[in-house]
Amino acid sequence: MASPPTIDLLLNLIDTRPNSILASLAQHPQLASASDAHGYSLVHAAASYNQLEVLRELVQKYNVDVNKLDEDGESPLFAAEQGDVARCLVEELGADRGIRNAEGKTAEEKIAEEEGEAHEVCQYLRSVRGARQAHPVSAGVAETEGVHPPPPLPNGVQINVGTMAEDAAGEAPDPEIRRRIEELASREDFQTDEVQQQLRELISDVVTGMGTEDASRGVRRRVE
Fold it and tell me: Would you say the pTM of this structure is higher than 0.70?
């Protein structure tokens, strides 16, 4: 049985024989995330030689880290030489534009220094950075995922939010009443007629003063 190819061989073939790389990975998937003596990997090489098909398969099929670092602390984004490759890395595969190498530079900064700010990869990364800065709200959409507005109040119940003088505020709301309201609002069956009726009765009790009186009987008195 033939021995598997080495990572060095695959790195040498990626420029001219990308299909051979894909065939080798199908038989030897462990090579997908392998690196040479300098930490240089197939995902770095695929980015450098503009092999988008290989690049996508490495990350999406073989789960290679798109931010895999070489010995200089550089991810595949640092190796990109075409704007389409940089776009694929960032927008499709989720590459981190903020990674800094051993010299403390981002991919955008290093490429601008070595290739000039007119380089297409540098221009693309700058445009993405500018768009994120101009529209910070869209960049923070993930922070609000899973956050839902409170459920609507039952029919006939209205809450007016305002301010009042300290003397007019009276005593603080009874914590037991607050707990009961929050408990009802958090129930999964909040919208059912039964729970809505309980909420109406509770709010009515609070307004008329009955709720505080009832709640005080259910709260243990502190003994001095």
Answer: no
Tally of CA atoms within 13 A in the half-sphere of 133 that contains its CB: 6
Residues 14 and 136: their CA atoms lie apart, in Å, by: 39
CA distances from 210 to 105, 192, 214 (A): 67, 24, 6
- Under DSSP, the state recorded for 222 is P
Give the end-to-end CA distance of the chain in Å, rounded to a whole number: 86
Residues 72 and 101 sit within 8 Å (Cβ to Cβ) = yes
Instruction: HSE, CB side, 13 Å, CA atoms: give it for residue 26.
Output: 7
Q: Is the pLDDT of residue 80 over 50?
A: yes
Of residues 188, 219, 185, the one with CA closest to residue 199:
185
**Domains observed in the chain:** 7-144 (1.25.40.20), 148-224 (no CATH)
127-138 in b/e burial notation, b at 16+ Cβ within 10 A? ebeeeeeeeeee
The answer to whether the CB of 44 falls within 8 A of the CB of 79 is yes
Tens digits of residue pLDDT in 168-222: 445 555 677 777 777 877 777 777 777 788 878 877 776 666 544 444 444 444 4
CA distances from 31 to 46, 48, 78, 122 (A): 14, 18, 21, 30
